[in-house]
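Re: How this chain folds, sequence and tokenised backbone to follow
Notation: Tokens come from a learned vocabulary of local backbone shapes, not from coordinates.
Start of record: The labelled sequence and token lines come straight after this line.
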Amino acid sequence: MRDLVRRIESATPPGRDRAVDALRALAILGVVLGHWLVTALVTDSGTVHGASPLQHMPELTPVSWLLQTLAVFFLVGGQVGAASYATAHGRGVTYRQWLEARLVRLGRPVAAVMVVWTVAAAVMLVSGAGPGTVHTLLKLVLSPLWFLLVFAGLTAATPLVTRLHPLWPIAVVLHVDLIRFGLGGPSWLGWINVAAGWLVPYCLGAAWARGALKDRRTAWTLLLGGAAATAGLVLWAGYPASMVGVPGSRISNLDPPTLAAVAFGLAQCGAALLLLGPLRRILVRPAAWAAVALVNLSAMTVFLWHQTAMMAVTAVGMLTGRALPGLHTVPEGWGWVLARLAWLPVFAAALLVCWAAFHTYEQGRRGHSRVVRIGAPAPRGETHHDHA
């Protein structure tokens, strides 16, 4: 392990901003941990259906404030995407070459998930599993893919949005919510916010790449202003306090994004910018940086397979013939919470197995050598930040 740490440290370019990678790693791990904590698979008369502890224990709502970290991921995505495009453009790389290099790394691991779960769904149906159970499992696996579709779309639009002021997409979200909730407009208008809502942190990331947002005053303004706006929208405008969807709730802040989710994302972006200094000081330590680099090298694999890992543990647990607390039982009461926390290391072990099987689809044919090539010349159309 010490040898691996030394190799990663020596392969890292001196000018690399390690804090950017740390923010991306924290965002991915936040999403994974959030899903594992607020998603339950309950067995009922041979059928598996989804449930959420937030539905039964609203006092856990602050968990969604800590672990719904998508705005940070889009902030980093905008920063890295804009910087990558500027570097590629300066080197004479065409837009098509640049975009292809970035999207291929998204497409390979997604294709692996789709193939495996197409086969798994067919096998389950042939084996007699109920359509309701198969639908529940497929929804858990495939629903995160919306995030990748949006991210791919924003990546493709990077040259157009690099100089777009974040106030413009905020205005779109505001008007869509006003029409939907204030004037009784059609609910389908909310899907406009899927692009507009996540365009806000992506635009902030592009501004960061241009050299803006370096003033701590700006970061504090985003944090305090976003937090105040979120609190006002929740307390006086009827938006739910949870920043993730809750079964049975009339409004979801995330599906599609609402003005409250966008305001909360601004606060998260401000907090992320304020963390840059402390993270840079911590990541001077080779062991801390090695951990961050390794997470980034497998970020897509972790994101795409974490739900499968949880479901695999749940399925194996069913072989005991009884409902295991925190795994198959209704998520109500603190007993369930404590039991679920005890299952997290088991989920992590199952995810490690998934990583061992599928991480090469993310890193390419030479995936095992990539951890020691962090500072090597990037392929045409990519930058160093594309590799980690």
Q: What stands out?
A: The radius of gyration is 21 Å. Strands lie at 40-44, 47-51. Residues 2-387 form one domain.
